[in-house]
Amino acid sequence: MSAVTPVVPEVMARDATPARRALRRLVRRRGAMLGLAIVLVFVVLAVFAPLIAPYDPIATSWSAVRKPPSLQYLFGTDEIGRDVLSRVVWGARASLLAGLVSVCISMALGVPVGLLAAYVGGWTDSLISRFTDSMLAVPFLILAIALAAFLGPSLSNAMIAIGVSATPVFIRLTRAQVLAVKVEDFVEAARAVGNPHWRIALRHILPNVLPPLIVQASLAIAAAIIAEASLSFLGLGQQPPAPSWGSMLNTAKNYVDNAPWMAIWPGLSIFFLVLSFNLLGDGLRDALDPRHK
Amino acid sequence: MLQYLLKRLAAIIPTVFFVTIIIFGLQQLLPGDPAVILAGENQDPDVIAYLQKKMHLDEPLPVRYAYWISGVFHGDLGESLRIQQPVLDLIREKLPVTLQLAGMAMVIALLIGIPAGIVSAVGKDTVWDYAANVIALWGLSTPNFWLGILMILVFSVSLGWLPASGYVSPFEDLRANLAAMIMPAFVLGNAIAAVLMRHTRSAMLQVLNADYVRTARAKGLNERTVVLRHALRNALTPIITLGALEFGTLLSGAVLTEQVFSIPGFGKLIVDAVFNRDYAVVQGVVLFTSSVYILLNLLADLAYFVVNPRLRG
């Protein structure tokens, strides 16, 4: 790869790959870059939580119960004297993990199934499409709650529940994209030179349907983070005493009148992380699909 | 028209079939013998034996499904083990509360979302457009249970204007009912307002470039009439059909909102059932919700068909 140097437009148009052109468009979008910056801040918080958090996130202290924010406890303490800042920092791990793992599950299930449906067609397609319709008929969070309830409450089960519930969107999107791409001339050409089906599907079709999937993934991470916080808020996600923003809010709602700081910080964290993935997703969509307005 | 209706109805059958398979399948996720788990903590052998017989656990899976689905078709969604009441009765009891909440939320969402969308489309790339987009992004990124807690903090704890929780039936005291419902309805409507605003904006932007809008302007109508009478009317169709699809968001959101404000509705029913390990209730609620969602989808499609003469051919 050659270094990106400032070049005159004609040269740029000639030597830049589509991916690089999209990246350039993305970098120019201030919203997307702001989103990316916030995401990176949270990633750093999550990775270096043991170094950044000033206190042990699960250490209780009866002499510091519900202390308002101060120099000693910047975000205050909770109902059993745990440091809210430390719990918010460690909570970034649960949220980011839930966002990423759930969407990986959705994509790992949804993309191959969607590809299969569109590529093979016929009754395989009908069967998969009807099944997808049915999954979409159950409201997302209700399905996730039901799955988490039957699987049993834990962070990993919440991630499975969210991932499975978000799968139909990926099946549908992949299917629609593959249907459009598989009739293109280059696919016909690949078939004409005798490529096996798996090679046509994976090497020729899949790379061409990736851009909308990347956009969807980024927006789905935002939805998954809210969903994990919601499940934890209901007691179906991360189990106490492990820190999670959703479960912190669940406790905080009982102390709104005398310890509002317990509710402010975890909520703001969810808001900023979700907002940043939404901004990034919107920016990616504009960058990857110039026709989209 | 009739042909379209029949085709659309026929397409529902496999969808409903798979939905019942998914919901029946949930039960298979329980680790171990469902009867033992459903019997709860006391593990009374009589209860376990009764449940095994009632759920036909000695029969193969397809037979069990057949028993379950025939019950469903006869209006038997099972029985709550905790409260010893048919699931359908529980749903009937809790549904009106959630319907009121959802209805108020939808009105709030329409009142905010559509005007904001119009303003943002008419004033494209102005400060108004920018502001409306920022507000929409805020609406989409704020978890509604957090917004609920913040509103309680401001309007109940600090200002003391509204009650933080406590549902009152509208037939008992309408004023108290509205006071208790207005915050939850706003919280629930907030996210949908954002979605509606985005739909309205893009629908209006498309319509505002149409020839008939240019004609309306050319014949000297004032801008207000052009936007509201000529453009909005035509933009409304996709907005309304897309709005109907937000029903799922509304119900998912109701689960959380009812939890924050302790409203004894549909959402609280499913959450309580989850914690009481009352699995029949969870299944019943999911089945009911999906059926209503499928029905609303159908109605939205039909509405689209009815208001758009070009589709009737």
Task: Based on the model shown, name its key terms.
heterodimer; A: 293 residues; mainly alpha; elongated; B: mainly alpha; 78% helix; globular
How would you portray this structure in words?
The complex is a heterodimer of chains A (293) and B (313). Chain A is mainly α and 293 residues long. Helix content of chain A is 73%, strand content 0%. In chain A, helix 7 (140-151) crosses helix 8 (155-181), helix 8 runs antiparallel to helix 10 and helix 11 packs antiparallel against helix 12. The radius of gyration of chain A is 23 Å and the shape is elongated. Chain B is mainly α and 313 residues long. The model of chain B has no long low-confidence stretch (mean pLDDT 84). Chains A and B meet through helix 6, helix 7, helix 10 and helix 12 of A and helix 1, helix 6, helix 7, helix 11 and helix 12 of B.
SSE map:
The complex is a heterodimer of chains A (293) and B (313).
Chain A (H helix, E strand, L loop, with lengths): L8 H7 L2 H11 L1 H18 L1 H4 L31 H37 L1 H16 L2 H12 L3 H27 L3 H8 L4 H37 L11 H8 L8 H28 L5
Helix pairs in contact in A: 2-12, 3-5, 3-12, 5-6, 5-8, 5-10, 5-12, 6-8, 7-8, 8-10, 9-10, 10-11, 10-12, 11-12
Chain B lengths: L1 H27 L5 H5 L6 H10 L6 H13 L13 H36 L4 H15 L2 H15 L15 H35 L2 H8 L4 H22 L2 H15 L4 H10 L3 H29 L1 H4 L1
